[in-house]
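Thread: Newbie trying to understand structure tokens

Hi all, I'm a second-year student working on a class project, and my supervisor (Dr. K.) asked me to get a predicted structure for one chain before our next meeting. I've only ever worked with sequences, so writing a 3D structure as a token string is new to me. If someone could post the tokens and maybe explain what I'm looking at, I'd be very grateful. Here's the chain:
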Amino acid sequence: MANQSKATLVRDRVTPKLHIAHQIWEVVARASFGQRIVQVETTTPEELRAVWAVAEGQYGCPLPEELSREDQLAFISYSTCDEVSYIFLELLKHLLGEDIESISWWRIRPKQSRKVWIGMEDDEEEELYDHSHLRVQLVDGTVLIPDFTGYQHGWPFEVVEAEEYYQERCEEGTESWEVPADDQEHQEYSYAAQLRKVMVEAVDLMRRKVFDEAIELPKEESKDISDMLEMVREEVRDFCARWGEHMMRGVLHRPGGPSAG
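---
Reply by user tm_fold:
Sure, no problem. This is what the structure looks like when written as tokens:
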């Protein structure tokens, strides 16, 4: 009974932080979104199809306001699961603290609830691809999965135990597998590595402000994190602006200028 109570306490501490991590993901995904939606061809509960164009050197591209929140989240999560897993593998260690035993990066063959396809005008439609996610093992042995980019398969965000996640979202007859360590690496000065550095620094500050200064507050006095999320958003926007300028300098100096392939 004592062990069960301890497990509940650990999960009760970690789950709200994972929901905050989801809010951070959405803020960052919108602030760094680098595609311009050209045309939405289909949007139904079963299917989402759209054409987009790369906005070279631009980030934070606006999404069509008439789209539902679910469609917008599908756009900003589409084909980003590897990058998000790479970034949050490190970020969650800073956010969750001593309640976690380990965080690991896994993949599945996804069982889609919604068929989503977004691409360039001349792209051929891709076959279903593998889907990355993180496994968070708590100190009590519980394994939770917070899948931030499941929207691209029609899945809402929720924090669930691993067994439930795989039963509902893994294609029948397939199993999950851990991503090899070599496949988890990025070059030190790559976009993903530099963005992760910026986010970790922002989240470290956020953790001190939100958690270390507001431990065990009653619900009616819970800490408002909107200001801290805005701080994270601005840090990411500033990074993306600088990265965009860096990219465009490279584009302008290559033979043929910006239009060169």
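A couple of things are worth pointing out once you decode it. Strands lie at 35-43, 47-54, 100-108, 115-119, 131-138, 143-146, 159-161, 177-178. Residues 214-222, 251-261 have pLDDT under 50 and may be disordered. Feel free to ask follow-ups in this thread.
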